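Reading group handout, session on sequence-to-structure problems. Before we discuss, look at one worked example. The prompt was deliberately terse, the way you'd type it at a terminal:

> structure Trk system potassium uptake protein TrkA

The input record follows.
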Amino acid sequence: MRVAIAGAGAVGRSIAGELLENGHEVLLIDKAPTAISVERVPQAEWLLADACEITSLDEAALQRCNVVIAATGDDKVNLVVSLLAKTEYGVPRVVARVNNPKNEWLFNESWGVDVAVSTPRLMSALVEEAVSVGDLVRLLRFSHGDANLVELTLPEESALAGTQVGDVQWPQDTSLVTIIRGTRVLTPTREDSLEAGDELLFVAAQAREEQLEDLLSVRRES
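And the output record:
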């Protein structure tokens, strides 16, 4: 897979290193000469250019990329890069970094963004996830389909504790994708039982989140 990353700062370089370790081709793009540190990620391709300019993206051969990641520290730049990648070059997957949570509403399919990653929101979500039981925590937003990756730790008093996955009437537009039980990561089957303390990860439509939380947190009758 070929991936272009706009923004060769600490975030961009870190992403590049991870992708290279997983065997992908990576191109780092940045207009600041001081950001071009080939020795830090020597396996990557580097391009000194403005990722908001069509001529630069032509030089980067963006049409050959499977994924573009807009990872600069400027939300305006990330939006422009995302829009150009999607509309001018037809890049299948565009991931954009959101620096200011107030701008998060802009990072959607109308700007070419498939997945928006808000670092402040993600950090707060991880804090909530670590301390919350029975509360739905939104971890990641997917622009297409208005869906989110959400997590809930099943409380002791939940009526669903001990229930098989296949016996639960999940809300529409909701999919249980993973059960984390202690150190184990389970791909749920219909026969798996839910246990108190399970961390449940769902992909769910935003409109169904409240319904999902109510279902999982409902208390047993005493």
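Points for discussion. First: The two ends are 54 Å apart (CA to CA). Second: The longest strand covers residues 174-181.
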